[in-house]
Amino acid sequence: MDNEKLKILIVDDEPDILEILKINLENAGYKVYSASNGKKALKKADLIIPDLIILDIMMPIMDGIETCERLRLDERFKETIVIFLTARGEEYSHIAAFESGADDYITKPVRIKILISKIKALFRRKLATGNSSENLLFKNLKILADEYKILLSGKEILLPKKEFELLYLLANKPNKVFKREKIMKNVWGSDVVVGDRTIDVHIRKLREKIGDKYFKTIKGVGYKFVI
Fold it and tell me: What is the pLDDT of residue 105?
């Protein structure tokens, strides 16, 4: 994947962070844009359609969580990679980030080499999996891979990105038990550190939206999709 063709939008209300990240990412070969808050980011994203967005969580006017949620509602940004910047280390902040549609997060102060390494890994993962998904069809459930949505008894349900990826992973091999480590690696990536509760929260939300009958907890091991 040619870095020069990849567009990155940085969103942060701290000018020093914007400048430092912009310089380093441009030196790494990316085409870089910036915005100082979520509202401006939405307008900028609408113009440039970025491949990746680095998004601060705590911002005035519109925070990063709301910005990400709005982006994910737009079909054009379903595949855009989103990395959150956060000064907060609490697990619930990370869960909120993933629920809004984030692909990864990095804590402040930002270590540039780690950030660039994450960006490269996420782009490699996207390239490797971009054309491999097929729609999954069950009796009352259709999982539409390219649209990140499902049809449950004919009713359309839109899912946040990580919820969809978790569902697709499990449903792609019905009745197979997926260990928690396997789920974390495939849905969140080996470079992302998330707590066990993150998986449980996403499963709970899928049960609320789709139905408890589709998901079975294997105590001490993981989960499986039941048909």
Answer: 85
